[in-house]
Specification:
The protein has one domain (2-63). It starts with a helix and ends with a strand. The longest helix has 6 residues, at 2-7. The protein is mostly beta strands. Helices cover 9% and strands 62% of the residues.
Length: 65
């Protein structure tokens, strides 16, 4: 993550959303749920003319597997 952070040219304080891609698994014999994160997408805030956040735009995605 430090390497990715160093390559990110924008101000990191503008990152307002993290979106994860995950696989979820259910093991009925153990009555257990497990999830595995595959990637995380960092999104930065977009503001309207009133200064309110109206959307997020993806800055970059980090694949975790």
């Amino acid at each position: 993550m430090k390497k990715i952070e160093g390559e990110f040219k924008n101000d990191r304080d503008k990152i307002g959303k993290l979106s994860f891609t995950e696989d979820w698994y259910y093991y009925p014999s153990e009555n257990r749920v497990e999830k595995k994160a595959k990637s995380v997408t960092f999104g930065y805030e977009l503001y309207n003319n009133l200064g309110k956040v109206y959307a997020y735009r993806a800055a970059f995605r980090a694949d975790l597997q």
